[in-house]
Specification:
Order of helices and strands: HHHEHHEEHEEEE
Strand content: 25-35%
Largest sheet: 7 strands, mixed
Oligomer: single chain
Distance between the termini: 33 Å
Strand order of the largest sheet: 1-4-5-6-7-2-3
Helix content: 25-40%
Radius of gyration: 18 Å
CATH architecture: Roll
Number of domains: 1
CATH topology: Nuclear Transport Factor 2, Chain: A
Length: about 230
């Protein structure tokens, strides 16, 4: 029998958590205020993502030592934060007009098969949607994350991809993520991911992240945690 869900109780819990301090002084209220508007994903933004898909297919160059200390280190730090469920600090690594994107196309999706404007995606989160995820995870509103997922990320094969976009750096890598939830077997997920870096307000930020799963075209079980 399905348990009765008390909407008033859930709403009260959400309101009460809006002032709870999060990592580095953040509150869920800060995230809500930060994501009241999100209108930047328009036709031109989708065109940029299609261009990304074409560029990701290029042969990459091994990272220089400077690239490793800058870009590889930030990717590893991002995943360290996710593995410790430090979602607020993870959120602050991203630019104001960012996208976190998991296509549903197999192999190396091209600009047609992987086009998020026309094709189904597993996840396609602008900054507001990323904030929504954190609110759900922190308030218990995401029932698919009760019990919560814990992850362990491992990346290798970092290469720098040449790009025609001035002021951007593209880094591609291979990954494997192990996910564990109480009462469920440990699940491995693997594939490649791409990070696009920009400088914003004098700081290096992740502007766009694509996670291309090896089995993306298959039916996926509960991918409500962050890759």
């Amino acid at each position: 029998m399905e348990a009765h869900h008390d909407i008033n109780s859930s709403s009260s819990r959400l309101v009460n958590t809006m002032t709870i301090p999060m990592d580095e002084g953040f509150t869920t209220g800060d995230i809500l205020r930060d994501t009241l508007e999100s209108t930047y994903v328009d036709d031109s933004y989708y065109a940029k993502l299609r261009d990304d898909l074409d560029e990701w297919q290029k042969i990459g160059a091994p990272l220089s030592e400077a690239d490793r200390q800058t870009y590889e280190a930030l990717i590893l730090h991002e995943h360290w934060l996710l593995d410790r469920r430090a979602f607020e600090r993870w959120y602050k690594l991203y630019s104001r007009q960012c996208v976190y994107w998991v296509p549903a196309a197999a192999d190396m999706p091209d600009s047609q098969r992987g086009d998020p404007q026309r094709q189904v995606t597993i996840a396609f989160d602008d900054r507001r949607r990323m904030g929504d995820r954190i609110i759900w995870l922190r308030t218990g509103m995401a029932y698919s994350q009760l019990p919560p997922s814990y992850t362990s990320h491992s990346n290798s094969g970092f290469v720098r991809i040449a790009t025609a976009c001035a002021g951007e750096v593209k880094i591609r890598s291979q990954f494997i993520v192990h996910e564990m939830r109480a009462g469920h077997p440990i699940r491995p997920l693997t594939g490649w991911m791409g990070h696009v870096f920009i400088e914003e307000d004098g700081k290096l930020k992740i502007d766009r992240k694509i996670v291309a799963l090896l089995d993306a075209a298959r039916s996926q079980h509960n991918l409500t945690f962050l890759l």
